[in-house]
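> Could you send the Carbohydrate ABC transporter substrate-binding protein, CUT1 family prediction when you get a chance?

Sure thing. Input:
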Amino acid sequence: MPRHIRNPAPAPRPSRRTVLGLAATGLVAAGCGGGGGGPGMAASWWGDPGLNDALDDAVGAFREAGAGRPRVHSEFLPWDGYWDKLATRTAGGDTPDLMMQAATYLPEYVGRGALRPLDPYLGDALRLDDVDASARSTGGYRGRTYAVVAATNALTVIADRGLLRGVTGRDLPDDRAWTWDDLEELAGEVHRASDGEVFGLQDGGGDLMAFQLFVRQRGRELFDEEDRLAFPVDWLAEWLALWQRLRERGAAPPPDMTAESVNMLAQSPMVRGRAAMTFAWTQDIGSHASLREAEYAALLPPGPSRSAPGEPRPGLWINAASLWSVAAETRHADVAVELVDFLVNDPAAEELLGTRLGTPPRADARARAREGADPVTRVSLDYMDLVAAYSTPLPRVWPLGFTELRSEFNRYNQDVGFGLRSPEAAADAYYDYAAGVVGA
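Output:
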């Protein structure tokens, strides 16, 4: 069974009490009209009980809106358990008719022959015309469409606006024009102005998604269509050297502080008030706000050069927080596709789901969600409108082995931080390692 790791952009994690309850009871089933089991169509997704209830309500509304539609039995798990369960079901020939997918695992399930190509349905039973242009191709792999975006997010620089203002005496930078040099200078200024008490920027050198942004800004991708590395190793050395320079000047935290907070958001320098900015996903804004009250802002990432207002920000893309896929061998293909279309496009589903899945992938849905949103959610919604206007689509999803590559990327950045390797040596070693993983 493949080894799974945490998604770069998962749905909000359930509470500790919820996780313990799920672990004690096993898979939680909550089917429309009285629970799972029996004849009908199976649907599976990850999330917390609140999201599950909303999705169940939406699925129920779908069934009520069409005479003769089969009963839908739904099941959900937290992120970590979901993939183990889905892998087991797929291996046993029991793939759910409708399932939530992630771009990181899409090639794996396509390779197993578990997913139905959706191309014959596009434009008719499955409408994507109103979905953000940069997100429409997210579920494509090797020339065919195997998934449709359910919710979106994007890379951003989360800034603690009050902390920045209090330390430096000035407001946010012009994020529609700033550069990596501007970011480095601002981060250093924060550290100097705070007498070393605050770091300007959390260490993002080990974030493979941030490095992908860096690569795309220079006109390349991490991988080509043959799953080979498509960027020069010198670019990785330059990236690792940038973050080592930030650490050395105090603009980013020392490596031991960063290592202590890996996968522990509550211990991160920004949540502790020790850093003013961090690279993150839009959904992480709410997570930060739940742990520390502050005036958070979402900034477009810096670019390689200053850009004029209205120009795309090089490298930025709309990411799929989650996707919907249909099982290859389902007996309910047409109905499952109709359900996907309903969840993506129907006003009734939109009202029931709100932003529980993540940011809606349609501008009109975001506008309606904004009307009743809290200030933190509104920051994410407004930012995704900017991303829709300033981004360029990804040409492909990740290759097999990508989750392993992402997990290991942070280790090589830490090696540089702790002085175990030079940026050049770490870049060479990771490049060789990555080539072996995706080439295996």
